[in-house]
Design brief:
The chain has 93 residues and is mainly alpha-helical. The protein has a single domain, classed as BFD-like [2Fe-2S]-binding domain (Arc Repressor Mutant, subunit A), CATH 1.10.10. It contains four helices and two strands, in the order ββαααα. It has a two-stranded antiparallel ribbon. Helix 1 crosses helix 3. It is elongated and about 60 Å long.
Length: 93
């Protein structure tokens, strides 16, 4: 069986998600927390439809009744350069 990537940010395959559901992570929120789906840099924008469709097919639920898990972006966006520089307590932000 070829490897089918469902979530590119977290490198999750179809089989990763099916296995997680079979192991008991059969609620969309617990599946999210266990696998990291919806939690990559895209915050589910690229994978939500794929994950929800696979989840619905695997669990037998109606996809129209599912909701996308809550997205939690960073509290306050910061410039990427801040992460790449050394912090100096004496310097003003």
């Amino acid at each position: 069986m070829p490897k089918k990537i469902v979530c590119y940010c977290q490198d999750l395959t179809e089989m990763d998600l099916i296995r997680a559901i079979e192991e008991g992570y059969d609620h969309i929120e617990t599946l999210k927390r266990f696998t990291g789906a919806f939690m990559g840099p895209c915050q589910g924008k690229m994978c939500a439809a794929n994950v929800l469709k696979l989840y619905a097919n695997t669990t037998g639920q109606n996809i129209k009744e599912l909701r996308v898990p809550t997205m939690r972006p960073p509290v306050e966006p910061i410039p990427l350069g801040w992460l790449a520089t050394e912090f100096d307590e004496n310097q003003d932000a």
